[in-house]
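The freezer alarm interrupted the setup, so I double-checked each line after restarting. Inputs confirmed:
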Amino acid sequence: MKTEKISELTINRLSIYLRCLNELSEAGVQTVSSKLLAEQFNLNSAQIRKDLAYFGEFGVRGVGYVVEDLREQLRGILGLATTHRVAIVGAGNLGLALANYLGFQQDSFQIVALFDVDPARIGLEVRPGLVVRSLDLLPSVIPERQVDMVMLTVPAVAAESVLEMVVQAGVRAVLNFAPIHLSVRPGCKVKTVDLSISLESLSYFLANPTVEPQEE
Amino acid sequence: MKTEKISELTINRLSIYLRCLNELSEAGVQTVSSKLLAEQFNLNSAQIRKDLAYFGEFGVRGVGYVVEDLREQLRGILGLATTHRVAIVGAGNLGLALANYLGFQQDSFQIVALFDVDPARIGLEVRPGLVVRSLDLLPSVIPERQVDMVMLTVPAVAAESVLEMVVQAGVRAVLNFAPIHLSVRPGCKVKTVDLSISLESLSYFLANPTVEPQEE
DNA sequence: AATTGTGAATTCCTTCACAGCC
DNA sequence: GGCTGTGAAGGAATTCACAATT
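Predicted 3D structure, all chains:
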C-alpha cells in the first residue's frame, strides 16, 4: 500500500473493474488476467496492474487475479462493503426518477430521504416508506436518518444554497445534477453530472465530422 | 485555427465557458478577461486562453473578450447554432424524466421521438405530440423525424443491441446512461453517463477521509 | 496598464519493457 | 510459459512567464 495520492481516474477505473468482476463471479470464473480485463474495455493491461498496485499486491504471478478475492478487495477499497444512506434533494422529474431507479436500491446505496420546497410535492409517497418532505426539515432529518450522501436535483439557481444546508448538516459527499459550478467546500466532495456538457460535446462531434470518434 | 486534434477536455470546458458567457450576456456585461472567467470555476487563465486559441484569435489584447462575440463563436464551434433532434430509447423512469426535463427543450436540443419495447408503455402520450412508440419502428422513425442524436436509457443488457439498431439507422451521436462499456463503432460517437461510477467515487472518498476533497 | 497568445517548463497520466515469481 | 509488479520512457494536459498588442 503506497502513500501516494491516488488520482480520480484510477478510482473511476476501479469501479469499472469491479463491475466486470461481478459479472465474472456470477459466471463462475475463478481467475482473470490483467490482459483479459484490459481487452473488455480497451485499456492497457499495465494500467490495470498499476491501478491495483496502489492498494496492494492482489495478483499471483503466472496466474492472474482470483476473481472473488479481488472483488472483495475492490468493494472494500471503494467503501461498498457498508451501505450508504442517500438523500435526494429536489423531487422533480429527475429526482423522482433517481428515487425509483432500481440500480441503486439493491446495491450499496439506499435512498432514505427525499426533500423539496414545493408544497404540491411535499407529502407525496414515492414508494412505501419514502415520502417527500419539506426542505425545512433537512437539518434535522439528515442526522436522524443517518444520511451520508446527497443527490442534488434542484434547479441551478438553488443549488449553491442547498449545498450549504447539506454541508452544514454534516454530509460530506454530494452528487450534483444542477448545471452549475459549485464552490469547493473543505471536507465535502462534490461530483457534478452535467448533461449539458455531455450533449454539447456530442454536438461538437456532429458539427466537426473530420474528427474521428474516440473513447471519451 | 490550428489543425491539431482538440482534446475532449477542451471541448467540455468550452461548454462551461459558454454557460458563463450566457449569464454575462444576460447581465449586460460587455467584455470579460480570461482571468475573470478563470476565477469563476477555479481554472487557470492560461488554460482558457489556450482552449480558445485552438479555434481562432477571439480576444483583444489589453481588453479581453467581447462577451457577445465570443458567445456566438462558441455556439458555432459547439454546433449549437442549429437545433439537434433527439430521440430517447427506453421510456422508464430516467427516459421519461429526460423527456420532460425543461433544460433541453428550450435550448438547442429538442426531443422528437421516444421508444420502448414494453407494450404497457407504448402509446403513452408523454406530452402533446410526444408518444412512446415501439422500438420496432425505430429504423423508419429515425430518418423520418430527422433524428441526429439518441439518448439510451435502456437496461445494460439491451444497450449493445439497441446501439447497433441506432447506428444502423444513421445516428452518429449517442448519450448512453446504461452502466456498461459499449463497443466503439466507426463514425458514431458514444458518451456514457455512468452514475454508479460517480457514486462509487464518492463512496471511496467517504471511506478514505485522509484524502482532501478535490475538484473532480 | 492591461490582457492576449504562445513557447518553454512542469506536472500528471499512460504505456513500455523486463525482472521476478509461480 | 505466463503473468504480475514496477522503474523508466513517452505522451498529454496544465501552468508559467513573457513578448506582442491595444
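Quick read of the result. The mean pLDDT of chain B is 93.
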